[in-house]
Amino acid sequence: MAVVKISSAEQFNSLLTSSRFVVADFYADWCGPCKAIAPVYDSLASQLSRPNHITFTKINGDEQQQLAQAYGVRAYPTFIVFENGNKKQTVAGADPRKLNEVIQTLASEATKSDATGTAESSSSGVWSGATPAKGYSDVTDQVEIKGLELLNRDTERGEARVLFDKSKPSGLSGKGKGKAESKSDWVESDTDEQLMLYIPFNATLKVHSLHITSFAEADEDDDEVPMRPKTVSLYTNRSHVLGFDEAEDIPAVQTVEIKAEDWDAKTGTAKVDLRFVKFQNVTSLVVFFVDGDGDSEKLRVDRVRIIGDAGEKRDMGKLEKIGDEPGE
């Protein structure tokens, strides 16, 4: 069957894991435009479906409200394209031309990636050290790069922006041992092990978790091995970076401890789960790396990814049909 009818959140999450690309058609039985565009969608699915690579699904939003809410569906029909479990693109409304354009582009990218052998990376070149939690996506693209601030960084290393670079970290391939005068794609602390990172966002986010990547490696010209972060304190909605003394006087929204077993051996990445209820309307984050997992005076961070949801969600009872009059 070309189109998979989704009957549970577990079934859909399983497809996000097993198929590189997933196209979801969120619809409702009472939605006229949904019925009008269905033959177009079914035709594309019949032509382009590929087992475990491109999967087309249909999700009844009235029956699967959890999924509709999780992905911010506000009207029917809404088509969402996922790549490697991350929300990639959305088409709202019954627009056959736009839908055809997006899906044909997707198929072209999939074919191209097969030919170049880059299936482990997304077509947009975004590296990810861990899979986002079910129902959430990587929203790091909402980071306002120009507004980043990082206190106590070693100026001979990378700048704050490298933490959000889309490329695979050089440390992953053992190339993160360059000399001090070369440009690094990671950051290290300077006078002690602490780092204070200010992250402003372009939109209001709901932040579910952080993925922090760190490789504890010595440089060719330095025998001291930097530490991975251990204690991390988080502050929300600050207008500027906090000073180290200032942070001691302000209660953190949450402080977490990353244990040695939390670090993935292959990707050097730890998932930091947050108390989601406290991170619902976040316009900025201050991430205070308080200490590391050893006795070194240096702490190293290679990448930071933000996992959650961008934008506010509406009450499912107030969903409107695009191009159709509201039902009773």
UniProtKB/TrEMBL annotation:
Record-linked PROSITE patterns: PITH (PS51532), THIOREDOXIN_1 (PS00194), THIOREDOXIN_2 (PS51352)
Keyword terms, alphabetized: Disulfide bond
Start and end residues of each PITH domain: 128-326
Thioredoxin domain: residues covered: 1-108
Polar residues bias locations: 110-126
Pfam families reported in the protein's UniProt record: PITH (PF06201), Thioredoxin (PF00085)
Region listing for Disordered, in residue ranges: 110-133, 164-185
InterPro entries named among the record's database cross-references: Galactose-bd-like_sf, PITH_dom, PITH_dom_sf, Thioredoxin-like_sf, Thioredoxin_CS, Thioredoxin_domain
GO CC annotations on file: cytoplasm
SUPFAM superfamilies: Galactose-binding domain-like, Thioredoxin-like
This protein's record includes keyword Repeat: no
Family label: Belongs to the thioredoxin family.
Protein name: Thioredoxin
